[in-house]
């Protein structure tokens, strides 16, 4: 877990502090599958700007996630560029909406912030390629390697009575 101390910064309103920070990145669990950031650390640019009543935080970095394709289960890789911003009001009595959830006791939890920022930038499906055909729902073969179709399946005999009703209507 990577943390950064805001207490050590002695900024006045309008001043900015920039720092290069190596962040430990955590793996993701999506749809029962595990996605790993490669590498496990990311070099990031962190900037803290003191406003009149709080701090404006900005975190920028890039990473690559590896894991299974959500259609065919082959290896998939996804490049993610993060440019996240947060505001943290330094007044202890400020509304929770004005306080960053990543700041506690003057420390920023950069690993958790990075993980959430990556999650916000993920597509609906992580695919090995945009035109991935997926797996055949009947036999389970990879349709990218073996495009095929199955003959019309015979109807389940338990539904035969309903088929007769459909023909009469």
Characterize the structure shown.
12% of the residues lie in helices and 39% in strands. The longest helix has 11 residues. The protein has two domains: 118 residues; 37 residues, no CATH class. It starts with a strand and ends with a helix. Strands 2, 3, 4, 5, 6 and 7 form a six-stranded antiparallel sheet that branches. With 169 residues, it is mostly beta strands. β6 and β7 form a beta hairpin.
Produce a short descriptive summary.
The protein is mainly beta and about 170 residues long.
Topology diagram in text:
Layout: E1 3-5, E2 16-24, E3 28-30, E4 33-38, E5 41-50, E6 54-68, E7 75-89, E8 103-104, E9 107-109, H1 110-120, H2 160-168
Antiparallel strand pairs: 1-9, 2-5, 3-4, 4-6, 5-6, 6-7, 8-9
Strand content: 35-45%
Unreliable residue stretches: none
> What gyration radius follows from the Cα positions, in whole Å?
25 Å
Number of domains: 2
The major pleated sheet works out as: 6 strands, antiparallel
Could you state the oligomeric state of the chains shown? single chain
What are the defining features of this structure?
169 residues; 2 domains; 2 helices; 9 strands
């Amino acid at each position: 877990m990577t943390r950064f101390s805001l207490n050590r910064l002695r900024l006045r309103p309008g001043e900015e502090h920039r720092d290069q920070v190596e962040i430990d990145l955590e793996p993701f669990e999506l749809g029962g599958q595990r996605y790993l950031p490669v590498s496990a650390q990311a070099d990031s640019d962190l900037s803290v700007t003191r406003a009149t009543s709080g701090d404006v935080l900005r975190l920028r970095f890039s990473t690559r996630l590896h894991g299974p394709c959500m259609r065919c289960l082959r290896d998939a890789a996804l490049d993610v560029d993060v440019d996240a911003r947060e505001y943290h009001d330094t007044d202890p009595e400020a509304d929770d909406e004005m306080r960053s959830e990543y700041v506690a006791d003057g420390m920023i939890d950069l690993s958790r912030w990075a993980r959430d920022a990556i999650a916000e930038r993920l597509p609906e499906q992580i695919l090995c390629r945009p035109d991935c055909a997926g797996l055949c729902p009947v036999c389970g073969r990879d349709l990218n390697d073996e495009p095929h179709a199955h003959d019309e399946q015979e109807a389940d005999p338990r539904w035969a009575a309903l088929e007769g009703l459909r023909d009469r209507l």
